[in-house]
Specification:
There is one protein chain. By secondary structure, this protein is α+β, with helices and mostly antiparallel strands. It has 2 domains: 270 residues, phage-related protein like fold (Alpha-Beta Complex), CATH 3.90.1690; 53 residues, no CATH class. The chain is built from 8 helices and 23 strands. The strands form 5 sheets. Strands 12, 13, 14, 15, 16, 17, 18, 19 and 23 form a 9-stranded mixed beta sheet that branches. Strands 1, 2, 5, 20, 21 and 22 form a 6-stranded mixed beta sheet that branches. It has a 4-stranded antiparallel beta sheet with strand order 7-8-11-10, with no helix packed on it. The longest helix is centred in the first third of the chain and has 23 residues. The protein is globular.
Length: 357
């Protein structure tokens, strides 16, 4: 069963742990809402839904054809170690304890640093063999290279049309492309021959404001939302600049689809068409798209065991009193978290790129 960090903390009798989790969660829309699955071992291998099986109509007594099976990508998500030591000098602890509990302050600040690192990795994590982090959502929704002429393509390669059209194209017959770009089909599953290459149209979880970026519109926001199948997104995650732009668009349109509420921690939150708007300070407003270097990205995501979900070891986040440090008059408390991220279906995560002010 997948539960959020906040719900997991209620199962613990450790007051210090509960306080650390509250510090990590209360200012993070991601960690307030992202559920986590406890896994045994150091990773999880799972099948990510790629394409659905085929279906057809038949006459009475007609022979049924061979089924078209669904396809999956086999993904392995490995738990990574996130944490930090909170060291407190015993002299300072003793001489300042009448003003404030210095140890509690240091642990609280360390918990905030861990939250910041998780939120940064949630967006930009590399998840490569040489990195120590997990793959973030920016790397999960891939921006493929544009199609190129007289180029060799292998089975399973993907391209986008040179003028992005909302789809991606999978190489289902390997070969060399023609000198001129084919007329791309705009129906999922349709194919087109490109000299000796055959491309198959596939759904894309990517949408764009234009080749060189462009101003955000409410129509583009709705297009992003429609990329999530099987219900609405649980969250639209964006930079503060993008939220300001949405607020300006809503005010100009006089739209009543924006709501404001308070969460359980008393923070004001905004919802567009019932979808939570989350802010992440590690989403850059200076990304390059085409000739523009002032672009941002908005992400739509659905949470859950069949969608986007965190992975963690039993017990979730832990706090260890390491004790006295050798050669120093200081004590150490270690906060650590074995954590990763999994997307069980491609259609539960999408991104809009090229968002300008």
């Amino acid at each position: 069963m997948a539960i959020t960090l906040d719900e997991a903390s209620k199962l613990s009798n450790d007051i210090l742990l509960q306080g650390v989790i509250e510090t990590i969660v209360k200012d993070s829309p991601i960690l307030q809402n992202l559920p986590f699955i406890e896994i045994v071992g150091n990773g999880l291998t799972y099948n990510r839904e790629k394409t659905l099986p085929g279906a057809a109509w038949y006459d009475v007594n007609e022979s049924w054809g061979a089924p078209t099976p669904p396809t999956f990508d086999q993904i392995t998500a490995t738990l990574k170690i996130l944490g930090e030591n909170a060291d407190v000098d015993n002299f300072l602890k003793a001489t300042r304890s009448n003003v404030q509990d210095l140890e509690a302050v240091v642990i609280e600040l360390t918990a905030k640093a861990i939250r910041h690192e998780f939120e940064d990795t949630f967006i930009k994590g590399l998840g490569t063999g040489g990195s120590k982090d997990f793959l973030g959502i920016d790397g999960i929704v891939v921006i493929h290279a544009d199609w190129a002429g007289t180029t060799g393509y292998a089975l399973g390669d993907y391209v986008h049309a040179t003028v992005f059209n909302g789809f991606r194209y999978e190489c289902t017959t390997a070969g060399t492309s023609a000198g001129s770009e084919p007329t791309w089909p705009l129906e999922e599953g349709a194919t087109v021959s490109d000299d000796s290459v055959v491309w198959t149209c596939r759904r894309s979880q990517l949408t764009s404001t234009g080749a060189n970026g462009g101003s955000l519109t409410l129509a583009k926001l709705d297009e992003l939302i429609d990329k999530i199948l099987g219900g609405k997104p649980d969250m639209l995650l964006m930079s503060r600049r993008s939220r300001r732009k949405i607020n300006a668009l809503v005010r100009a349109a006089g739209s009543g689809m924006m709501e404001t509420e308070r969460d359980k921690w008393g923070n004001f939150i905004q919802l567009w068409n019932g979808i939570l708007i989350g802010i992440n300070d590690w989403i850059s407003d200076a990304k390059t798209v085409g000739s523009s270097a002032d672009c941002s990205t908005i992400y739509a995501m659905q949470y859950g065991e069949g969608a986007l979900c965190g992975l963690t070891s039993p017990g979730h986040l832990t706090i260890e009193p390491v004790g006295s440090l050798e050669g120093k008059d200081a004590t150490r408390t270690r906060i650590k978290w074995y954590v990763s991220l999994a997307l069980f279906s491609e259609v539960k995560l999408a991104k809009l790129i090229g968002v300008k002010d």
